[in-house]
Write a structure and sequence with these properties.
Elements lengths: L1 H45 L1 H4 L9 E4 L4 E4 H14 L2 E2 L4 E2 L2 H46 L1
Antiparallel strand pairs: 1-2, 3-4
Helix pairs in contact: 1-4, 3-4
């Protein structure tokens, strides 16, 4: 008799776990979407000036916040090389530009171009994320009834 009760309890637990798996997967998807929405809203706030230029920020340009403009990577690279070649004073390092400084800055702006492009894509996807989240939350509410 005890074995039968034990088997029934274990069977009920397994059954409950099987039914909760889709709900758990849906909750994970909801949490993932909430994270993406948070990231998009943060990008919207921190990259507000650059968002006006998203049609130009395709990975070959970057947003230069100090001048509120978009610069082409190749032109900027040429300028950095010229600064190093001429030994122009670098206010960041408080000494003349050298090739190592130019190379380091070049790597920074290449990463910035990728980040700017990704920020634009993330903010552009925000309405779709919010719509999908609303749909999933409605489905979850329907399944919980």
């Amino acid at each position: 008799m005890t074995r039968i009760v034990l088997r029934m309890v274990l069977g009920a637990i397994v059954l409950a776990l099987n039914f909760s798996t889709p709900l758990r997967a849906q909750n994970a998807e909801i949490n993932d979407l909430k994270g993406k929405i948070f990231d998009a809203k943060m990008a919207q706030q921190t990259f507000a000036g650059g968002l006006r230029h998203c049609n130009e920020l395709d990975g070959t340009n970057f947003y230069f916040q100090q001048r509120d403009r978009v610069l082409k990577l190749e032109d900027y690279h040429r300028s950095l090389d010229n600064l190093a070649l001429q030994g122009v004073f670098n206010p960041e390092t408080k000494r003349p530009w050298n090739q190592q400084d130019a190379d380091a800055r070049w790597e920074q702006v290449k990463k910035q171009a990728i980040t700017d492009h990704a920020n634009c894509a993330l903010v552009a996807a925000l309405p779709g994320f919010q719509k999908k989240l609303d749909e999933l939350q409605q489905q979850a509410a329907t399944q919980n009834k």
